[in-house]
Specification:
9 strands, 49% helix, globular
């Protein structure tokens, strides 16, 4: 539920989504608790709600995996109240095709779901935030920051478009300076918004972790691949990024791909003053993940 914007899911119907062959369920106005045997579909129902809200799985599952075995298409239909008005939201995917989203029967872009909805999910897969590759942490950061800031969502989209163009040019041994200019412009904004978001997130996350763990410490750090003073002005950040691109231009030409930028950023976590990835236990990772999600819930709300 997104209380600030008056958003609420009243009902969801599923067709051939995971093991939910044909589900139609309405939700109460308070907390809703689902219980049942292992493998009965509880987590799949939560995933269906996430896909309905944002058009993608919180478990990083590909669309084809979400289609029930023996079927060619999954379909989710929800009744979603937004600022007092009820709307029908539909998300459908057919194997080999593209995902289709509709609001009240009118085609709707997935990017617009991020502008309209906020949703936070927690699950066992969250331990990957601490134990997994940097790409897992970037995906985690982007998933929730895109809900927090529509400006970030647009800058990230423009950055990745320019990055794809630069990588194509590098493979063809073309001049990449025009693309570096675009990457500097959009990348500076992506990095500054990431730094600001982590600054807002880390204090409540640290507090939640200390409360749950009984006083143990946790730290959260944004680690950009281009060292910058992100507290400075956008113009100064752009100048620092431009110098970094100039320094690495020959190496990128030899490698045939872009080596620095927000697409190579990472997040750093420490638990009890030790690197969480190498020194954290499974229990500490789970506690840290819950703390992050509680902080995200408060921030997005």
């Amino acid at each position: 539920q997104r209380s600030g914007a008056g958003m609420r899911i009243d009902r969801i119907g599923t067709t051939s989504f995971r093991n939910l062959t044909a589900l139609d369920i309405s939700f109460s106005s308070g907390a809703n608790v689902f219980y049942g045997e292992n493998g009965s579909g509880k987590t799949n129902l939560l995933e269906a709600l996430f896909v309905l809200c944002l058009g993608r799985s919180q478990r990083r599952a590909q669309d084809q995996v979400l289609v029930q075995n023996g079927s060619d298409v999954f379909r989710l239909v929800g009744q979603v109240r937004h600022d007092g008005r009820s709307h029908e939201l539909t998300v459908a995917y057919q194997r080999g095709g593209k995902k289709k989203v509709a609001l009240d029967g009118v085609p709707f872009r997935i990017v617009e779901l991020f502008e309209r909805h906020c949703v936070v999910a927690a699950g066992p897969e969250d331990s990957d935030i601490f134990s997994g590759a940097p790409s897992v942490r970037r995906e985690f950061l982007d998933l929730y920051l895109c809900q927090y800031s529509s400006a970030y969502l647009e800058y990230l989209r423009l950055y990745h478009r320019a990055l794809a163009q630069k990588n194509a040019a590098l493979k063809q041994e073309m001049d990449c300076a025009p693309f570096d200019s675009l990457l500097t412009q959009y990348g500076s904004r992506v990095m500054k918004l990431r730094a600001e978001f982590i600054d807002h997130l880390k204090a409540p996350a640290v507090t939640h972790y200390a409360t749950i763990s009984g006083g143990e410490s946790m730290e959260v750090m944004y680690q950009p691949s281009i060292p910058c003073d992100l507290s400075s002005s956008l113009q100064q950040i752009e100048e620092q990024i431009a110098r970094a691109f100039e320094t690495i231009r020959k190496r990128e030409a030899a490698a045939g791909s872009s080596l620095i930028g927000p697409h190579r950023d990472d997040l750093g976590f420490t638990i009890a003053n030790q690197p969480a990835r190498t020194h954290g236990s499974q229990g500490q990772w789970r506690t840290a993940a819950i703390s992050l999600k509680l902080a995200l819930y408060g921030l997005l709300q």
